[in-house]
Amino acid sequence: MRGHGFLLANYVPGQSFIHRAPLWLKFLLVFGCGLASFIVVDWRVSLAVLAGLCCLFLLTGAGLKKLWAAIRPLAAVLAVIGVFQWWMLGAPTAARIILNILVCVVAASLLTATTPVQRLLDGVVRAAGPFKRFGADPERFALTIAIMLRSIPYIAGTFADVRDSARARGLERNPRALILPVFITSVAFARQTGEALAARGLGEAED
Question: Can you say where in the cell this protein is located (predicted)?
């Protein structure tokens, strides 16, 4: 199974000031961009923010190829959303919605491209610590995120492989030839992951 990135850029080692920035500051950047996507009403402001984030991303040394790889899986969906919103609400609103989505994706990619996964998960555990008093389990929350980060690229890779195989057999327009193998492989992957966690005593509810 070949590897595939999905939506967010993978970690790229480096010594840029963004790599060295505190994790809480990166989390704050992502949170701020997500909040701004609900507040900003002018597409030109969204465009300026997106341009700034893209410049920051390039300063990390990740490169345009890495940035495009993070955005490319969304291209078709964004095109559909853009056309629909343009038809319903006009071009300025459609542009603002599309740009705000890209702002969130690039901001999150900036975090994942400059932060090792383990450090990111450790930060999640620390951030979720105060919620222990309400019965939350920060370690289990981090484990869930780790499984998600591992599973999404695997399933995306499965779909790409199945699509290529169906195309080779002339079945690329047959939904069953695409969906059924991906579904079976995904269920098998989920079972294997669950069994591996159970064998290590992880993910089980405490009495």
Answer: Membrane
